[in-house]
Amino acid sequence: MNATASAPSAVLPPAIPALDDSLGSLLLGAFAGLLLQGMIFLQTYRYFQLYPKDGRLLKAWVWAILILETFCSALNIHTCYYYMVTNYFNPTVLGGNPVWSLKILIVPACLSAILAEAFFARRVWLVGPQYRPLVVIAVTLELGFLACFLLILRRWNAPTTAEYLQDYWLPALGSGFIGIGDIMMTAVLSHVLHHSRTGIKRTNWTIDVLIRYTLTTGLLICIFEVINIILSVLFPSKLIFIPISIILTKISANSFLAALNTRNWLATTDAPGTDPLNPFTTSLVGPANGPSRLASTLRFKTKLSEMTSAGSAQTEAIELGDISRAEQGRSADVLEIKHDPEAAMSVERSLAP
């Protein structure tokens, strides 16, 4: 009788721990990552449709980020499948050594984030030599971000998840590094654009759009960086920070692609209240149809003032557009401001090598 009564208890399933801060976090991160991955695919497709004449370096840049982010999504899917399908009734695996796909995920994710940040750092580098020391500092911080996350891999063979995440301060420190670098690049670009404003309504509108885009994307990335740091510190032995990390790399990649794809839009969209046919506001040069229309040139130069004082004249001009360079086979996004022929200041952001 006792043997019969004890038989059912022998086959009782082991107690399953709460999954909210483990599998729940992984699943939410995978869902969010796949949604943003779809945006990456769409923006990549649009990029190659809109800018077929961009340089090889820029195209390779886009391909590299696309491949890395796709690899990240594949690793996320494998991680979820391993824990939720292969080991669906094995709760002990949750506290054991993390699956290889989850551990190696940090490598392509960090490389993708650095490539996206390096693009904006390159823009600041091209602005002028006075900002290049800041670029060097930002790049150093980004390399520190990569080093912090790679150091986590030294615990590859840790027997438990808690021991693998024992150095929880490393992802927090790395997120702080890249967050500071992103703030620096955002501040410099916003500063340069703000001081590039002129009295031309079309020009000011374009610059305002660029400033809003720079601040919005930079602020969004910084917010997720702060959340990532907080979760890493408050829950050192949990995987709650995983969804934020996945979303963060996807946002960086989408920001990079959006910066490339908006070049033609900025060059061909008129500011509210301006007359596109007025030669004193805009001048659109290019064929009316055909593929070359995408490489049209928008140039607008206005002589703001000519003041004769001590035999010198001051002239200001601004150019912003997607300029086709047939002899070089590439396109460039140019923002150039000139003051005084004898002491010219040029601000150029080239999106192609």
TrEMBL record:
Transmembrane helix found in the keyword field: yes
Bilayer-crossing regions: 26-48, 60-84, 104-121, 133-156, 168-189, 210-234, 240-260
Domain DUF6534 residue range list: 181-264
Keyword Transmembrane belongs to the record: yes
Record key words, sorted: Membrane, Transmembrane, Transmembrane helix
Pfam families assigned: DUF6534
Alphabetized PANTHER family for the sequence: CHROMOSOME 1, WHOLE GENOME SHOTGUN SEQUENCE, DUF6534 DOMAIN-CONTAINING PROTEIN
Protein name: DUF6534 domain-containing protein
